[in-house]
Design brief:
The protein has 174 residues and is mostly beta strands. It is 14% helix and 37% strand. A four-stranded mixed sheet has the order 3-6-5-4, with helices on one face. Strands 7-10-9-8 form a four-stranded mixed sheet, covered by helices on one side. It has a two-stranded antiparallel ribbon with strand order 1-2. A hairpin with a 5-residue loop joins strand 9 and strand 10 (158-164). The chain starts with 8 loop residues before the first strand and ends in a 10-residue tail after the last strand. Mean pLDDT is 85; it is low at 1-30.
Length: 174
C-alpha cells in the first residue's frame, strides 16, 4: 500500500506505526526502525519563582506537573509541566539564575505571542480561564484557521489560545 498523509502515522517507542484501514482490522503495524526522528521535548520558560509558576500553570491553566526534582549540584529544580493529557512538547520552568536572565522574564518573545495552546473546546477553556483570572488582551476572534484569543501568563508572556478548524493542517499533528 502507498504511504499516506502524515496524519495516518503515530509514533510509539522507537518505531513508526502506520495505520492502515481495512474491513475487519483497524490498523497494521509497520516497524520503520532506523528512520531518523527528532522531537522538541522541552521549551525553557524563564520564571521568577518555581512555586508561583507551578501554581499558575497547574491551578490556573490546568497543566500537569510532570517533574519537580531538586538538583543539589546546581542548586536548582528541574520543573516540567504540560497541558493535561498532552503527549507533545513540555515546558521546562527555569528559574532565572543570573541578572541577564531576569530581563527576559515575561518577555521571552520580545512582545510577540510566544506560545500557542491548542484546544478542542475553545469556549469552555476560554470561560474557565476567565473565571480563574487569566487576563486576555485580545478577545476571541474567528479567523480562517480557527478561533483564537491572546492571554498573558503570570509574568506577561503572550499566548494564543486556539482551536483550529477541522481542515487546518495542524489538526494532523495531534
Amino acid at each position: 500500500a502507498p504511504w499516506h498523509k502524515p496524519r495516518q502515522f503515530a509514533i510509539t517507542g522507537q518505531a513508526y506505526v502506520r495505520w492502515t484501514p481495512s474491513a475487519r482490522h483497524c490498523c497494521r503495524r509497520v516497524n520503520l526502525k532506523g528512520i531518523r526522528m527528532q522531537l522538541i521535548v522541552h521549551i525553557a520558560l524563564v520564571v521568577k519563582d518555581y512555586d508561583e509558576a507551578i501554581d499558575f500553570y497547574v491551578n490556573k491553566l490546568g497543566f500537569e506537573l510532570l517533574d519537580d526534582t531538586y538538583q543539589p549540584e546546581q542548586d536548582k529544580r528541574w520543573v516540567v509541566v504540560a497541558p493535561y493529557g498532552g503527549k507533545g512538547t513540555t515546558l521546562l520552568l527555569a528559574r532565572a539564575s543570573k541578572p541577564e536572565q531576569e530581563t527576559f522574564i515575561g518577555n521571552q518573545a520580545g512582545g510577540r505571542v510566544f506560545l500557542f495552546l491548542s484546544t478542542n473546546d475553545f469556549y469552555k477553556d476560554y470561560s474557565n480561564y476567565k473565571e480563574k483570572g487569566i487576563v486576555f488582551i485580545r478577545e476571541p476572534k474567528e479567523t480562517e484557521y480557527g478561533m483564537v484569543a491572546v492571554f498573558k501568563d503570570l509574568y506577561g508572556n503572550l499566548w494564543d489560545l486556539v482551536q483550529f478548524t477541522d481542515n487546518h493542517p495542524m489538526n494532523t499533528r495531534f
